């Protein structure tokens, strides 16, 4: 699976009440991959995806944010806009607001990741709240 396919998978699993925008801006470097909004919140997310991960727990997994992406994401966060970097592999999703991170270990990834289904539930609740709200 490629990053684009992963983003499509996320979008297919989100409820229709969430506005989703796959951003493709060739004129402004560093812009996040997506924007999501709903009745309770909105955010930008930069996605990174890897099919395979190393096998040793101490192996480093590179988070491939470009310098422009790091600057753009940090600037939005400084402006109090919810902004995240999401790294995924298989059915696991790692979410961070720390755009300075260049790598994490496999152990960190496995310990701090959530299942894809949980990620969709968290993003949904963030954007549109509970169904009973």
β-strand amount: 25-35%
CATH level 1 class label: Alpha Beta
Determine the fraction of residues in helical runs and give it as a percent range.
Answer: 25-40%
CATH topology title: Trna Endonuclease, Chain: A, domain 1
H and E string: HEEEEHEEEHEH
* Average pLDDT number: 95
Question: Rg from C-alpha positions?
Answer: 15 Å
Spatial sequence of strands, sheet with the most strands: 1-2-3-5-6-8
Largest sheet: 6 strands, mixed
Distance between the termini: 36 Å
* Principal-axis shape: globular
Report the strand count: 8
Structural class: alpha+beta
* Individual helix count: 4
Count the domains. 1
Description:
By secondary structure, this protein is an alpha+beta fold. The protein has one domain (3-128): Trna Endonuclease, Chain: A, domain 1 (3-Layer(aba) Sandwich). Helix content is 32%, strand content 27%. It has four helices and eight strands; from the N terminus they run αββββαβββαβα. Strands 1-2-3-5-6-8 form a six-stranded mixed sheet, with helices on both faces. A two-stranded antiparallel ribbon has the order 4-7. A hairpin with a 2-residue loop joins strand 5 (83-89) and strand 6 (92-96). The mean pLDDT is 95.
List the helices and strands and how they pair.
Layout: H1 3-13, E1 19-22, E2 34-37, E3 42-49, E4 60-62, H2 67-78, E5 83-89, E6 92-96, E7 103-105, H3 106-112, E8 114-115, H4 116-128
Parallel strand pairs: 3-5
Antiparallel strand pairs: 1-2, 2-3, 4-7, 5-6, 6-8
List the keywords.
single chain; 133 residues; alpha+beta; Trna Endonuclease, Chain: A, domain 1; 6-stranded mixed beta sheet; two-stranded antiparallel ribbon; 4 helices; 32% helix
